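Response to reviewer comment R2.3. The reviewers asked that we include at least one raw input/output pair. We reproduce the pair for Eukaryotic translation initiation factor 3 subunit C here without editing.
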Amino acid sequence: MSRFFAASDSESSDDEFDKSSDAFTDQSDSEMSDEPEVEDDQPSGISKWLKKTEDESDSDSEGPKQIKSAKEKRFDELRDITQTLLNALEFDDFVTVNNEYDKLQKSLVKADAIIKREGIPRFYIRTINTIDDVLKNYEKDPSMNASSTKALNAMKQKLKKELKLREVELERFRENPVDEAASEFEAQELAQEREEERAAMESAKKTKKVEFEEDGFTAVSKGKAIPTTADVNLFEVLNQVLDARGKKNTDKLAQIETLVRLKKSAKTQYQRVIVLNLLIPTRFDYVPPVTGCMSTDMWQSALEEIKALYDLLDKNPNIKIGPFDDNEETEQAKDKLATKGEAVKVRGNIASFVDRLDDEFLKSLQNIDPHTTEYIDRLRDETPLYCLLVRALKYAESTNESQDILDLMLMRRVEHLYYKPDSIIEAFEAAVQTEYSFGTENLKIDQLVAHYCTLLYKTNIDRIRVRALLCHVYHVALHDDYHKARDMILMSRLQETITQSDIPTQTLYNRSLVQIGLCAFRKGLYKEAHTVLQEICSVGKTKELLAQGVSSQKFVEKTPEQEKLDKSRQLPFHMHVNLELLECVYLVSAMLLEIPNMALNSHDSRRKMISKSFRRMLEYNERQVFIGPPENNRDHIMAAAKSMASGNWQAARDFVLAVKVWDLLPNSESIKKSLTDAIQVESLKTYIFTYAPFYESLDIATLSSMFRLDEQKTTSVVSKLIVNEQLQAHIDPKSKSIHLSRSAPGICSTRLEYLSSHFAEKISILVDANEKVLESKTGTDEKFKKPNRKQEVRFRG
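Raw output as returned:
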């Protein structure tokens, strides 16, 4: 009986051991092992379990459990975090992305010793590069909640710092994603990923394109294919491309390639025209969202194709492109008619192609660093673009286009010329003459812009008329005709309505004002220069007003849409007005006016200011505890102002002429000579105003020798001061001296006299007010008299 129970106990224990072993062992391992179990002669029961334990120990001895190093543990931890981060980034969960990024940085700090020894892991560089690409191209959702927006902004700031820190590694990764310095495991992992990507791309190509290419078809969108062999009908292919254009899943690059092959396979002139008429706007559709402008190669291809289209239209005058109405004729019928030489109309707008090409050229210059050779190389494309503009204008005139189209294209031509000197305009016109043999209507180069602007004054489009006037004013001021430019801008009365114009027109208005001010300065009219430039230079937003940049503002974060809009308004670098030159011109003009004014109104200087911005700069400079030698342009002019106020005109001249920016002006030597003369005259005025209260007479010869002026010039300056009632004196021609009068009414020689007169004026005002109050109470004033009896009765009734 005991043996029976013993046997049953052993069998049940065997079953329990088998179940427990199945529960704790991997199921896949048991399924993969197809070998039958080897039966041994050992007894059942606990011996079977011992046998299995021995097998496990044998298997452990054959493949011991893998022990990870500290490096692998840390890198595995970093991989897990990066994977979670990238998954959250895929679903735009920026709160999770921000939190996981913080964890990633903390884990990176823990692995600092390993990273210093082994180097930064490649998958980490790949991760931050991926995050950077996603955030650059991310368009903010208006419905995003506040926490996600806050997390997104915080993530941008953190990533910006990290990108700057890992700049070298990122550059190396982007140049060669397979990092030679990476570990063997990382290289294998990357190779495996690339193999999978390659296999996926090959399979996609097979499913989309291979079966079509065998029959002469090319896929341009999901589920659609377009034939490109010579056996198919070209017009049907064009209709299919036109139907697919603009749809969501259309491959734009494939469309361009298809149309290029169709252009080569076109047999007649009409076919080439209609293919180019569709190919050119398709190229404009292919704009990368990252840069927002066409690539240089694509732009140049579009330029050559527009030229080829104009060549075809010139050779085949029976084919015309325009906004014509649809008719019942098919494309095949039009092709036959065009081949016979009969008139054929094609729907389109070739002038819009030239406009779009000009806009894309402007955008490309805005997106290129102006301090690189790439910008100079890109700027060379302006000459063929200008030649194409002239050709488009001539073709529009020959085909009797509408006047509005002619005015638009002529305005484009003027906008390429108005800010350039005559030498560059002459080179542009010479290029047009060489390429197309178009003349300049027997006009001189300096009269070209004025002639075109005069034609544009007759247009019906208000914006073109205003911009033409401003371009004309700018060009006139560039040629140093200050009075004509001033009269044109004043007679137009644009200052009253310019705020209602669009922003590019307002920018052009500001540029014209600045050029008028620079013209006045070059002509030696410093008061006029200060008056014109004060509105632009005194507000502290010169960059924004001239569309030459945006000043950095603290605690102000702009959205990507605002940054993109601000960038689209900026002018290309070669159109900029030198801001350092502009600041120097404004400050020097203000110095020549304000320093004598301060000396004249020394007792009441705060109430009678000419330039508040210059006065603030001067007061700030004087409040400095330590003032060293001048370092920048502003320091030079402040030092010159203080020297001029003390009567040292030579030091003031040296400080002003030490500014190197004057060399940027044409005829710089004559401008420096004019500046020196102005400093001498204004220093003489300052000296007379400062020391007149302390002298009874001044010798003209002595003043002339002090400021190195002729006696006639000195006499002229003093006479003007006397006539303008700025100096109470008279000139004795016999003794050649200036006799000063300190007893003249209204002239205060000391601070006490000024305060006394000021106090007397206040008392007189108070007495007048008191008398009015008294008259109102006594009724002596006509205004406050009581009404008569009849009036009282009438009022009561």
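Residues 184-214 form the longest helix (31 residues). The beta strands are 217-221, 224-227, 319-322, 344-347, 697-699, 729-732, 737-740. Further pairs are available on request from the corresponding author.
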